[in-house]
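Curious: why this fold?
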Amino acid sequence: MLLDRTQDSRFAAAALAPSAAGQASALEKEVAKLFDQWRAPLLGYLITLRLPLQEGEEIVQEIFLSLFQHLLRGKSRENLRGWMFRVGHNLALKRRYSLEREAVQQREQGAWTEVPDLGPNPENALAMKQRLARLLAVVAALPEQDRCCLHLRAEGLRYREIAAVLGISLGSVAFALGRSLERLRRADGS
């Protein structure tokens, strides 16, 4: 009788294996699609955390590998965008700390060869400076109410709190923020 149950479980596992392979294939496609969509924004964010481009690229790959494993284990799909940015943020801080610690150790040992430059290269620095100037110009050109809504939202206030502070309707807050973000998105080229 025990032998029969073992054989039954083997047959059940064998029957599930193609299903699991199909699930993994579907997840690979989903993660590949998310990679295409979120690679550039994630990399841009990682660079703002003062990581060299190559380190940022590696972390982006780690993010999507972690995402695939997360989804394969059947974990929550709620707010995957936030999840990816949080994982990227944590990995970037760990990597930056590690690079800084290595640089300190090299200095202490008198080995001044190849101390990693954690700042952007001159080309990236110029591009970031130009981007910032472009976005600040868009913010300066916004109507005052839109600018106030954007600033308060950036400070972490919720829509209802912004509406109360400015004495406007919730719909007006949502419209102003949507319009402001769209202008910023267009100016940023995304």
Summary: Residues 2-108 form a domain with the Rna Polymerase Sigma Factor; Chain: A fold (CATH 1.10.1740.10). The chain has seven helices and no strands. Confidence is low (pLDDT under 50) at residues 1-16. Residues 2-48 form the longest helix (47 residues).
